[in-house]
TrEMBL record:
Residues 16-297 form the FERM domain. The chain crosses the membrane at residues 548-574. It is found in: Membrane. It comes from Crenichthys baileyi (White River springfish). This is FERM domain-containing protein 3. Gene3D superfamilies: 1.20.80.10, Phosphatidylinositol 3-kinase Catalytic Subunit, Chain A, domain 1 (3.10.20.90), Pleckstrin-homology domain (PH domain)/Phosphotyrosine-binding domain (PTB) (2.30.29.30). Keywords: Membrane, Transmembrane, Transmembrane helix. GO terms for cellular component: cytoskeleton; membrane. It comes from the Eukaryota. The gene is FRMD3. One of its GO terms (molecular function) is cytoskeletal protein binding. Residues 428-450 are annotated as: Disordered. GO terms for biological process: actomyosin structure organization.
């Protein structure tokens, strides 16, 4: 176990345990700190494998809302996981599929890609016709079992390999035929190479399907390949937009937009996902794939905004190397090839003791990219696993012309690599690894450690409630205590005692007038006090009115602040000639140019016209 330490003593109490599942279903653990970034975990796994061509790979995880993500290398791991549950469970997977797998320099990298493609076949992501499925299955059997031996292998030995979601008896017989006759004498490395060579020509090679709905409400699956953006409905590819024709990818809420050019016409494809988080994940995957496969250098990668609205939306930038740089770096590797530790027969994921009665499947065109808690369930018997994988082995056929074009070129380009592998086939041996239990695939494999639901408190505390004054009740005196009775002076009291009857009569009349005046004044003041007390009671007791008033006040304050910032900034961009790099880049964006010519210029002309008309009328008068 690797321990990533810091000189700070306090940080030692903030360590987090991470469990990373590898492509062969083994696990490695790592202890990190809360500030550790995602690149450290990726480097840790690559060091475990002694892997140099690591730009094709990434680490995947599932958040508490069951949404999948790729671990970003430049952000802290803890902030990305968003879960208090430990240990963090992640998976090491192929993130960018090589456009030409034969250009991979090292056998170790090809073996890891082979493991990923084997998983894609098993879970229905790599769809293929019957003949291709039989050949790929035979390559897997040859790589893991070796040459066919009638003394060791029974007549139904292929049934021990669970290679496809729908594995018929006819398919198993075809696999055995190819394994016995066509692949004899091939070592594991050569069989894996033949599988990569055949698999990369399929339409769904490298496609991680994202379920969504198109503008008609029909279910579709979106994916990104080395060629471009693809859309599948059922098992049929209905759209292929090459990366050179894709001008922008953006999302707003649950809606994902692909803007491009096709046959010299502007094309806008609109899709709707189930959640905003799924839409953002789809957008990020598209931005990363477009940068990786399209750009010639990593210096050409730009920060992308998710929306065309000024100062709104998410901003994201792919931070790794691009495909051309990875191929150039691979060609410069000069070290001795590292040892490839392959799992023996019986330890591989392809082998299981299941009978056909224990394999339960639900047939659908493609497996969704969103995980489901019911995808796989472990039975009471540890040797029996019930699989619920919504996958169908595709019957569609790729175009014959494309297959004819790709096959000869691939064979010519790889003849030297095959010749290098052939002399070493006899001496290859597999190392002994501890037995491994088959685990659930990506949909749930990141999930089983964090299946407990997170609880968020439903109690809301409003600090504004304690800031209002407490009203005084009328029964306790209230405001009327201030105006209880008039005050008499001592001099007037003495005159009443000692004055004669005439003066006393005058004083009595004056006292009556003062009483009448005081009663009138008290009546007016009591009415005002009742209005004030009732209004205070309404504001403090009626929570809805209080919330509504505060909401309006906040909205007005935010609106004024936005206007004070936005209006001067827009005037600075639209009217000034200041040549700053930041302002220059904003002025050159297509969205800003569209706003300037379609909205601002007509509004400016209309305002100037009205002002000139008003001035002419003023001068004529």
């Amino acid at each position: 176990m690797l321990r990533f330490r810091s000189p700070s003593i306090r940080s030692l109490d903030q360590e987090v345990l991470c469990m990373i599942r590898l492509l062969d279903d083994s696990e490695i653990s790592c202890t990190i700190q809360k500030e550790t970034k995602g690149q450290f975990l990726l480097d840790h796994v690559c060091n475990h494998y002694n892997l140099l061509e690591k730009d094709y790979f990434g680490i995947r995880y599932v958040d508490p809302e069951k949404q999948r993500h790729w671990l970003e290398p430049n952000k802290p791991v803890v902030k990305q996981m968003k879960s208090p549950l430990q240990p963090y469970t992640m998976c090491f997977r192929v993130k960018f599929y090589p456009h030409e797998p034969m250009k991979i320099k090292e056998e170790l990298t090809r073996y890891l890609l082979y493991l990923q493609l084997k998983r894609d076949i098993y879970h229905g992501r790599l769809l293929c016709p019957f003949a291709e499925a039989a050949y790929l299955g035979a390559c897997i059997v040859q790589a893991e079992l070796g040459d066919y031996d009638p003394e060791e292998h029974p007549s139904d030995y292929i049934r021990d390999f669970k290679l496809f979601p729908k594995q018929s008896l006819k398919l198993e017989r075809k696999i055995m035929e190819i394994h016995k006759n066509e692949l004899r004498g091939q070592c594991a490395a050569l069989a894996e190479l033949n599988m990569l060579q055949r698999a990369h020509s399929l339409e769904t090679y490298g496609v991680d399907p994202h379920p969504c709905k198109d503008f008609t409400g029909s279910t579709a699956f979106l994916g990104f390949t080395a060629t471009g953006f693809v859309v599948f409905q059922g098992n049929k590819r209905i759209h292929l937009l090459k990366w050179g024709d894709v001008s922008k990818l953006k999302f707003e809420g649950k809606t994902f937009y692909v803007i491009g050019v096709q046959k010299e016409k502007k094309l806008v494809l609109t899709f709707h996902t189930s959640t905003p988080a799924a839409c953002k994940h789809l957008w990020k995957c598209g931005v990363e794939n477009q940068a990786f496969y399209k750009c010639a250098k990593s210096s050409q990668i730009k920060t992308v905004s998710s929306s065309n609205i000024f100062f709104k939306g998410s901003r994201f930038r792919y931070s790794g190397r691009v495909a051309k740089e990875v191929i150039e770096a691979s060609s410069k590797i000069q070290r001795e090839p590292p040892e490839v530790r392959r799992a023996q027969f019986g330890q591989s994921r392809s082998f299981t003791s299941l009978s056909h009665k224990n394999l339960i499947m639900n047939m659908e065109p493609l497996v969704p990219a969103l995980p489901s808690t019911n995808e796989y369930e472990e039975a009471a018997d540890p040797g029996v696993v019930a699989v619920k994988d919504p996958v169908l082995l595709s019957p569609f056929e790729p175009s014959a012309a494309a297959a004819d074009k790709e096959q000869p070129s691939a064979e010519r380009g790889n003849s030297s690599l095959i010749n290098e592998l052939q002399p070493h086939c006899v001496s290859l041996e597999t190392s002994n690894l501890p037995p491994q239990t088959p685990k659930a695939e990506d949909g749930l494999e990141e999930d089983d450690k964090g299946s407990d639901a997170l609880t968020i408190s439903e109690l809301e505390y409003s600090p504004c409630a304690s800031m209002l004054p407490t009203p005084v009740e009328d029964s306790q005196g209230g405001v009327n205590q201030l105006f209880s009775s008039p005050v008499q002076s001592p001099a007037r009291f003495l005159r009443e005692l000692h004055a004669d009857p005439d003066i006393q009569a005058q004083l009595e009349a004056e006292r009556e007038r003062e009483r009448a005046y005081e009663c009138t004044r008290l009546g007016a003041r009591s009415g005002m006090s009742e209005v004030l007390s009732s209004s205070l009671h309404l504001l403090s007791s009626n929570e809805r009115v209080n919330t509504w008033v505060l909401g309006i006040a906040r909205f007005v304050a935010v609106l004024m602040g936005v206007l004070l910032i936005t209006v001067p900034t827009l005037l600075l961009l639209l009217e000034s000639d200041i040549d700053v790099s930041f302002l220059h880049e904003i002025r050159q964006t297509p969205e800003f140019e569209q706003f300037h010519y379609d909205y601002y210029c007509p509004l400016r002309r209309w305002i100037l016209c009205k002002i000139s008309m008003a001035m002419e009328n003023l001068w004529s008068d």
